[in-house]
Design a protein that fits this description.
By secondary structure, the chain is mostly beta strands. It is built from one helix and eight strands, in the order E-E-E-E-H-E-E-E-E. The protein has a six-stranded antiparallel barrel with strand order 1-4-5-8-7-6. It has a two-stranded antiparallel ribbon with strand order 2-3. The protein starts with 8 loop residues before the first strand and ends with a strand.
Length: 120
């Protein structure tokens, strides 16, 4: 499966790099993420029946991101900036608008089930 260049959208992602030496108010280490990196992939408009079967029937997600770049490093711990530009909180943690729920790799493409971050 190859994805047409005209169907790709630009977005940014930050990869989880481990725990930092900085601690929160409870003494837990804060997660450390990479700087936001630009990437282009096909992003669905909304969830549909075909995507539900692709990742299973009990997984709730909002959109599907598909790439034919098999070297794409995005995983389940990545933070995505799809409808917003990269932003960071006072500790330097990225504030994205989507996160990855599941990754499905095939021979020629990678599909990601992604969900909108619930701010409330």
């Amino acid at each position: 499966m190859r994805i047409l260049e005209r169907n790709k959208q630009q977005f940014f992602y930050s990869l989880f790099e481990g725990e930092s030496s900085v601690r929160d108010y409870n003494g837990n280490p804060l997660p450390k993420y990479s700087e936001a990196t630009s990437f282009r992939a096909s992003i669905s408009a909304a969830k549909g029946n075909a995507e539900t079967e692709q990742f299973g029937t009990n997984l709730d997600y909002d959109r599907v991101l598909i790439t034919d770049d098999m070297r794409c490093p995005i995983d389940e711990q990545s933070i995505l900036f799809i409808d917003v530009l990269p932003q960071y909180d006072e500790q330097g943690k990225p504030i994205g608008d989507y996160f990855v729920k599941r990754v499905a790799r095939s021979l020629n493409s990678i599909s990601y089930a992604i969900s909108k971050v619930d701010i409330s």
